[in-house]
Amino acid sequence: MLSGRRYRLALSAEQEAMCEEVANICRAVWNTGLDQRRQYRRRGAWMNYGPQAAELADAKRDHPWLKAAPSHVLQQTLRDLDRACRDHGTFKARWRSKARWSPSFRFPAGNLITVERLGRTWGRAKLPKLGWVTFRWSRPLGGEIRSATVSRKGVHWFVSFLVDDGTATPERHAMPDTSVGIDRGVKTAAVTSDGDFHDREFITVGETVRYRRLQQKLSRTKRRSANRRKTIAAMNKIMGRVTDRRGDFCAQTAVRIVVKNALVVLEDLRIKNMTASASGTVAEPGRQVAQKRGLNRAILDKGWHRFELALTSAARYTGTRIVKVNSAYTSQRCSACGFVTDNNRESQAVFRCKAEGCGHAENADVNAAKNIRHAGGQPVSACGDLGAGRSAKQEPVSRATGRTPA
Q: What is the distance between the alpha carbons of residues 387 and 274, in angstroms, rounded to a whole number?
């Protein structure tokens, strides 16, 4: 099974400068290749990896600065571009901006990479053209190296090894009859149908205050100035710690859940659409833009997508099956009797069934998680959630009785 191992590098000044140079060359190759693909598409023609790789060899003769980067690293950049265009479309693949893109490049040939352990806390790796680079040995390598990616986050450089750890996904979970539903929210990151609440604060009060002050300072700096670069570096340092905490939380929570459950059921959420801006256009300005902006930040802060990826990755080692279900009516349906109306949810945290003879009451997120688990891979209803809109073909439900009119 393929798995990643990430270590923090301790580069010399010369090696750091070379990493910057190679990353900039890869960025230039990506942007040039993407521009070429878009020009071909506008003329009704196609351009893919094969012709671009052949033209790259010719370009290295005309532009000697391309030779500073290993050939297989540049070829891998074109392969990544080809995959991005196939997955997202030629005109939706993103440019690699110098200001927004984190420098990175990949060595795809694992047989050209040598790793040695120097002691309890240090190791070194031999990478093409970079030579021996030292890194913190924070965890065992645990497998055969397939590739290595060098990247920069903030002021630090890291190396990530893709290794084959020799394990296989179990055919059967250790507890095959167990299952759980998970409701993701903005108040609590994840609530399970078992009644477990998984959440934590990713940024401290002090960091929030310092970050806001840095934002104010950034607004007063001049573009391309040294003070602006220092301010951005300080902001990235704070956000880097927040990102690391979010990643640790998602990974640890995912492992705890998949170890105990053979089936994990999630809502099929379109997070990208849910976090789209409500600003609109000049001709048609959006409504409640500030409220929508706050909701978007809350969703992104909880790391819904990252948690889903962590569950998928951890499930490979336990044989857990990850299932997505339609989110329709999960927040308004009673998990005890199945009665549906938007009056059932009295507040963000309180659910109380309004059906006669039921009166079931519990935490609203736990109730939603139970509905998600009960869906078990099947849609809850034929239309969307009451809070998100209805299908034009769906008959309305009476708010008083919860039933469709005769």
A: 13
